[in-house]
Amino acid sequence: MTEAAQTADVALDPRGISTRARILDSAEYLFSEHGVNGASLRTIVAHAGVNTAAINYHFGSKKGLLEAVFARRILPIAEERLKQLTACRDGDGRPPLLHQIISAFLEPGMRGRHGGATFARLRARMAADASDDTRALMAHYFDGSSTQFLEALAAALPDLPARDLHWRFHYLLGTMVYTMANPGRIQALTNNSCNPSDMDASLAYLVPYLAQCFQADPIPEAPLRFEPGHKTE
Amino acid sequence: MTEAAQTADVALDPRGISTRARILDSAEYLFSEHGVNGASLRTIVAHAGVNTAAINYHFGSKKGLLEAVFARRILPIAEERLKQLTACRDGDGRPPLLHQIISAFLEPGMRGRHGGATFARLRARMAADASDDTRALMAHYFDGSSTQFLEALAAALPDLPARDLHWRFHYLLGTMVYTMANPGRIQALTNNSCNPSDMDASLAYLVPYLAQCFQADPIPEAPLRFEPGHKTE
DNA sequence: AGCTTAATCAAACGCTTGTTTTAGTCAACT
DNA sequence: AGTTGACTAAAACAAGCGTTTGATTAAGCT
After folding, report:
1. Which label site among A99, B81, B100, B118 has the fewest CB atoms less than 10 Å from its CB?
2. Does domain B72-215 match CATH 3.50.50.60?
3. Any idea which nucleotide's C1' is nearest the CA of A54?
4. Does residue A85 surpass a pLDDT of 80?
5. Fold of the CATH domain A12-60
6. What is the tens place of the pLDDT at every residue in A105-129?
7. Which residues are CB-neighbours of A122 under 8 A, at least 6 positions away?
8. Spacing of A55 CA from D8 C1' in Å
9. Is A194 within 8 Å of B167 when comparing Cβ atoms?
10. Chain A, window 56-85: residues with a beta carbon less than 8 angstroms from a chain B beta carbon
């Protein structure tokens, strides 16, 4: 009552928890918008409406804050990925369908439940920003997940050589990351004929498209020579 | 002669040009390795072996330096892209082959002639880092180039709806950027069965693969429903 | 020769960064 | 009611940032 902040706008929450959560939300947003280096702690505390020391009190350091922001979303995402993968494995026939594997890998991170487009953009930034710390952080949280999906894909595509499978999974990651990182990129290019900031629409195209790409013929080891009479299809 | 730097280790170059070029080389390397924010001007001048003020003298500001680094590579790349595109247009039949268009778009930037893997990594970082300045810089240098390739692709794929073409070109960009950004990423995942840090090997797979992806059937507007009996091929 | 211009240097500028300190407030428990 | 401990507030910290300064040197020109 001595100051001015005891009116009613903080009545919603018992103070402590709210502060922590507000920092996480603001940091997630500003990290994703301006990059981890580009968003200063002062910008974050100003956006969250908390004190400068709160970040170091709750998270120890900026690095600790980033890890908390990242872990809060990525753990449920990884969990749901596996849940969806095993769910469609037990479903009808034995092997999960290609669509289902790809959807199980992409959907949890791109739809709105776990941070949505904001956290997706942060993930994409971190994938490219890639300081040593960031690289270690992502490697730590992503390690097991990818191999399980690679195995599921291999089971669904028994005729595809491992070399092709690995390249195409690598390209899947690139396509996913780029789509998450660049909302509104092709809109300018194509007069709004497609809208990648709408993750639902992105997924609706991306999943069946990637399924087709995985099903395409293997690429021969020797590079193709372009002969004059060769047709495009 | 009054100081110590007049011995012989700078005898290779008439001073001025060498300083500028060394700054450009060091900046390109350090920007690509640690990001634009992550590489300080002091790190760059130390790596280049020049004075702190040299950067602002030659390039005005850090932003000016980045633009100079970028322009030095991207202009010849854009030029060679168009040269390759028109070359295969005039070649045999009328429309360039799909492989040729994709190769003309990817090859100049990924092979070694224009900065090679180092500059490729920088481009990939800038594509994701995307502060307002970086975004404006890339937009300025990439504007016209992409539309010409989109038109060539449309001519080579007359049956593909524009919507599919735009999405797939967007995915091409993502695949390219991710491959340039993450050398050595899948190696750890797949026990060295593929090596994306070798841009030649990457291109040898990427070009025919992307050609197949562009030729795949259009994706229907309405999202596919996964019916129980649906097979994966 | 003398004057002018371009390039380089050491040093410092003001500012922002992440982090820490010191003091204080509030809620809860015995 | 009083004490404790979780938490916040405001200010300051050292370090690093991009940038600027003013002096010094080398080269070009008439």
Report:
1. B118
2. no
3. D8
4. yes
5. Arc Repressor Mutant, subunit A (1.10.10)
6. 999 999 888 888 899 999 998 988 7
7. A28, A31, A32, A69, A70, A115
8. 11
9. yes
10. none
